[in-house]
Design brief:
The chain has 614 residues and is mainly alpha-helical. It folds into two domains: 223 residues, Growth Hormone, Chain: A, CATH 1.20.1250; 229 residues, MFS general substrate transporter like domains (Growth Hormone, Chain: A), CATH 1.20.1250.20. 69% of the residues lie in helices and 2% in strands. The chain has 17 helices and three strands. A three-stranded antiparallel sheet has the order 1-2-3. The N terminus is likely disordered. InterPro entries: Atg22, Atg22-like, ATG22/LtaA_families, MFS_trans_sf. It is a multi-pass membrane protein. It is found in: Vacuole membrane. One of its GO terms (biological process) is amino acid transmembrane export from vacuole. This is Autophagy-related protein.
Length: 614
């Protein structure tokens, strides 16, 4: 949930994505961002004009060759070899890591495959089914000697009895049980992501890990059909946690492809090649020329950011469309079986089948690449924890990256808590029937697609930066819990007290959440060093999951103590408003992008020196 260019002005023709051996001058999307200075205004004529390039200018040729060598060493970290000495540009083959339609469609198709789990299972039916399992093993809150009304009856029926379930010697409200399992799941997700991030950075393992988590998560969802409601209570949390770990880990790995896909687009590579002489002078010339080079780099990085935004927003749109389609199909068993737990288990298994089936073409499209030197897997796994410590120690070199992460920690806690609580709030607090809850589940992704498509239009209209647009979306989202707090006023008819209000609020949240997801991912992707995408996106996911662990846990404890989920609204209002000034005043995207660029250069130089000493 990183502006985007998903409107009709930029497009990728819907041709077969399996045609990967195509010319470089293909119809990739044209950026719709506000007009920025072109590279012609920054670079010399000899770097852009073919006629000028033909003139005998040995010094210009030498600068170009050196610059290309310099950029190849620092930018193409995902290639099989690192070139330190390079022939002339005219003698070099095309960059083997160039992005093809096949690569982009692989990213989109996997989003189409996996996002149904997040929308259908984690966001809709999963919390309700966990609450039903807890109710089946629970007792009345008022009398612990009387069993709860059977959950084998329709799970979303108008059962007014408040129930609790015993867990580790403590009685918990059944709604709190669902939230606590969600917290446990995200805690284990963080541990998994930390351990596997270095493996995902090694392109030899990245696709294999994506395949592993796709298979594990989809099969865990399918297994719900084999777990009837009367099964031991422990089975439901095991399947829930296993599926959520696989979904989160595969999403982190998929995100790590995003910066490379954007940088590998033919037009982006052409701009980088044109900027090479100016970028070289940034490290060897006067302060005036360094300023021009800095502007050149900022222009190039902005173009990369625009392309990441386009690819990311399209992936979110495809994933949301898949979730909408499966939710619509889930209405059939929900209606026929009258919202029983069997209908919910069929819906969860359907999400697993969807994930499994559509992962096959996605994994065929995503190419396996080879990079880096062989290293023992055990060493690489242990490296994840030391790498996390090293990244934290380097926070003074990437100040803006870590400031954004701190804001992201607060924001992801808020948004994760909203999505975790919304369905339970409708189920427990508003007593909404099954059909209404499914309708809520449909509204959110439908309006998320609308948000993904329209927020870039709004951004361009007001000429906002991506960070400023993200800030606006966060502020508007804070109005939702503010409105929910009106429900504490006894005489007030407002404050999300009716089904109609819930429908409107869900639509507004979906619109804002779609834009928030896209902009946050792109903003962060612009602040991470090249060649370390998986590590830093894993830190992004760790921050997300650490926060997602806190929010539902606190709300679950509040609900258990007050017997009302409504107390989540003040908490959400505070967290959203506290993050807004951080985005406005503490994060400088241009400074952060330049710091990440310099970090990658220095890290690459250090690695090459170490290799030379060996």
């Amino acid at each position: 949930m990183r502006g985007s260019h998903a409107d009709t002005a930029g497009y990728i023709p819907l041709r077969s994505p399996f045609h990967e051996n195509e010319d470089a001058d293909t119809d990739y999307p044209v950026s719709n961002a506000p007009v920025r200075p072109s590279f012609e205004s920054y670079t010399s004529r000899s770097s852009l004009d073919p006629q000028a390039q033909a003139e005998p200018n040995r010094k210009g040729s030498q600068d170009s060759d050196d610059a290309h060598t310099f950029l190849t060493a620092q930018d193409d970290s995902e290639q099989e070899h690192v070139t330190v000495h390079s022939p002339s540009i005219s003698q070099r083959p095309a960059i083997s890591g160039a992005t093809s339609r096949r690569d982009i469609w692989g990213f989109w198709v996997y989003s189409f495959a996996s996002e149904v789990y997040g929308l259908v299972v984690l966001g809709l039916f999963g919390p309700v089914l966990l609450e039903a399992f807890a109710r089946e093993h629970g007792v009345l809150a008022t009398d612990h000697s009387i069993p709860c009304p059977s959950a084998s009856s329709p799970a979303l029926a108008d059962s007014q009895a408040a129930c609790v379930v015993q867990l580790a010697g403590t009685f918990l409200a059944t709604a709190s049980f669902s939230l606590l399992i969600a917290s446990l799941g995200v805690f284990l997700q963080a541990l998994t992501v930390i351990s596997l991030a270095p493996l995902a950075d090694d392109l030899r393992y990245r696709k294999g890990l994506l395949t592993l988590f796709a298979m594990t998560g989809s099969l865990a969802a399918l297994a719900w059909l084999a777990v009837p409601i009367g099964s031991p209570l422990v089975l439901a949390p095991v399947l829930s946690v296993l599926g959520s770990i696989s979904y989160s880990s595969s999403g982190t790995i998929l995100n790590s492809y995003l910066p490379g896909l954007a940088r590998g687009l033919p037009e982006v590579q052409a701009l980088r090649k044109a900027a090479a002489p100016a970028l070289l002078k940034q490290h060897s010339s006067s302060s005036h020329m360094q300023k021009d080079s800095t502007d050149t780099n900022a222009c190039y990085q902005q173009h990369v950011s625009d392309k990441m935004s386009y690819i990311s927003s399209k992936g979110i749109a495809f994933g949301s469309a898949a979730g909408i389609a499966l939710m619509g199909l889930s209405l059939l068993p929900i209606t026929i079986l009258k919202g029983s737990t069997l209908a919910l288990r069929i819906a969860l298994a359907s999400a697993g089948a969807w994930w499994l089936i559509f992962s096959i073409p996605a994994l065929l499209l995503i190419r396996r690449q080879i990079s880096g030197q062989d290293s023992p897997v055990t060493h690489t796994l242990l490296e994840g924890w030391s790498s996390l410590g090293n990244m934290i120690k380097e926070r003074h070199r990437l100040k803006m990256t870590f400031r954004f992460l701190f804001a992201w920690f607060i924001l992801s806690d808020s948004y994760s808590t909203i999505t975790a609580v919304a369905i339970l709030f409708a189920r427990v607090e508003l007593r909404m029937p099954a059909s209404s809850i499914v309708f809520i589940g449909l509204l959110v992704p439908v309006f998320a697609i609308v948000g993904v498509l329209l927020t870039p239009v709004i951004q361009r209209y007001f000429n906002y930066s991506q960070l400023r647009m993200l800030t606006v979306l966060v502020f508007l989202t804070s109005l939702i819990p503010l409105y929910g707090c009106l429900g504490f006023v006894p005489a007030s008819p407002l404050g999300i007290k009716s089904s109609s209000e819930m429908f409107v609020v869900s639509s507004v949240f979906g619109f804002l959440y779609g834009g928030f997801s896209s902009y946050s991912r792109v903003c962060y992707g612009s602040l991470i060093p090249r060649g370390q995408e998986s590590r830093y996106f894993s830190l992004f996911a760790i921050t997300d999951k650490s926060a997602a662990f806190i929010g539902p846990l606190l709300v679950g404890l509040l609900a258990n103590a007050t017997s009302s989920i409504r107390f989540a609204f003040p908490f959400l209002l505070f967290t959203l408003l506290s993050a807004t000034p951080l985005l406005l005043f503490a994060v400088d995207m241009r400074a952060g992008t330049e710091a990440a660029h310099l970090y990658a250069q220095q890290d690459d130089l250090s690695n090459r020196l170490n290799m030379t000493q060996r």
